[in-house]
Amino acid sequence: MGRTIQNEYVPDYVSPPGETLIETLEALGMSQAALAERTGRAKKTINEIVKGKAPITPKISLELENVLGVPAEFWNSRESQYREYLARKDEQERFEKHLKWLDLIPVRTMVKFGWIREFKDKVQQLRELLRFFQISSPDQWEKYARSYTDQVVFRKSEAFETNRSAVVAWLRRGEIQAKNVECAPYDQSKFREVLRLIRGLTNESPEIFCSKMVDYASAAGVAVVFVQELPKTRISAATRWLTPSKALIQLSLLYKRNDHFWFSFFHEAGHVLLHGKKDFFINNPKNYEETGAGQEKKEMEANTFAATSLIPAAAFKALTRSGAPSRDTVLQFASELGIAPGIIVGRLQREGIIPWSHYNDLKVSFRWAGS
Hints:
It comes from Syntrophobacter fumaroxidans (strain DSM 10017 / MPOB). Belongs to the short-chain fatty acyl-CoA assimilation regulator (ScfR) family. This protein folds into 3 domains: 2-96, lambda repressor-like DNA-binding domains (434 Repressor (Amino-terminal Domain)); 99-149, no CATH class; 159-362, no CATH class. 54% of the residues lie in helices and 8% in strands. The protein is built from 18 helices and 6 strands. The longest helix is centred in the N-terminal third of the chain and has 25 residues, at 72-96. It is elongated, with a radius of gyration of 30 Å.
C-alpha cells in the first residue's frame, strides 16, 4: 500500500538498492568480492551498499553499469527513491511529534472556506498546512509568524492576544489571493484618481463594486482582495507592500455593515498613499473609532484621510452646523455627495452627533456568498 501526495503516489516501503544489487549478482553468478575487485572498490564498501548503509553514488553507478551491464540511470533512480523514502519516513516520525501544532490553527474553518484540503490523516493535514504557509516544518512556525506580527506598525487589535495563528493564516490567504491579481506598477497619482472612481461605487451592491474595485485599483498598482475573517481575528483590514511596485489592501466583512466597510477601505488606502512601503498595518474597528491621543499618528492620518475622502470636511461641517440632522436631511445630503447614506450615518454616530441607535436602517449589511 501507499499514499498520494499532491497527485503523486508514495509507496509505504522502498527496498534498499542493495537488495537489487544482490539479485543481479546472483543472476550473474558473481560474488561481492568479485564485484569489489572488478570495480576497484573495497569489499567493505560493496557490503555496506548491499546492506543499505552506504549510497550508490553517481560514480559507482557508472562502475556498476560497466561491470554488470545495468544502466547507471537505473541505479541512480533506485538510490534516489530509497533515500527519498528514508527522508519521508524520518519526516513522518518528526511530524507525528508536532501534531499539537494543528490545535493552534483554525483548520476546520480554513477547510470550510476552501483554503486548504481536508485529510483524515493528521500528518497529511499537517503537511497541507505547511504547503499553505510555505514552510517546511512546524519548527519554522514561530519565526514565520513573527515575520508578520513583528512588522505590524499598529497593534491595537486584540487579535494578537487571542489567536495570533488565525491572524497569520488570514494574512497569508490575502497574499495567496493577491498573487492572482495582475497589477500595473504602483502609480500614486493614478491611485488617487482611482479612489474617486471607487468612492462612486458606495451605492452599488457587492456584486458590482467588488470586481470594479479590484480592476480600478490594480490599474494603479494596488491589489485589493476580500478575505473572509477567521474566528477570533477581529480584523477589518490590513495593508502592506508585497513588492516595491505592488501594494496589498486586504478586507474582511467584520461587522458586515457598509459604513465600516467603506471607511476601512479608504483608511487602508490612506496608508498606501501617506506612509512608507516598509510599514505593515493590521486594523480592527477600534482603530477607526478612536480619535484621541491614544492613537498612533499614522492611524490618525489614515482616519482623517478616510473621513475627508468620503465626506469633505466643509460639507460635513455644514451638515452638522445646526446639530443632529434629520433622517431626510441625511438622505438628501448623501444624494448630493453621491455616496451611500449609511456612510454618513456611521460618521455621525462615531463623532457622537447622533446616538448609535439612530438611522441604522440606512446602513446596508453585507454577507459572504453562500453564508
